[in-house]
Amino acid sequence: MPNPGPVSHLAFARARTGCSAHLGVRLSRLIEPTLKAPGCLHFALQQSMCDPDLWLVSGLWSSEQAMNRSEERRVGKE
What we know:
The chain is 36% helix and 31% strand. It is α+β, with helices and mostly antiparallel strands.
């Protein structure tokens, strides 16, 4: 049974050497449209202070269903 409360996710992405800036730009394009998605409470991108090739994408959603619907919409646009 799905959790009826808020859910979160974390995803790490590592850029190839020399490609971190490009990956950061690509990932940052996800922020604005995701923040506008129904049920999105928070969505952020962070670059590691210790490893410039490591990025973290985190999100907080009102429900598991809202998170899954957002992912389905994003995949459908690719």
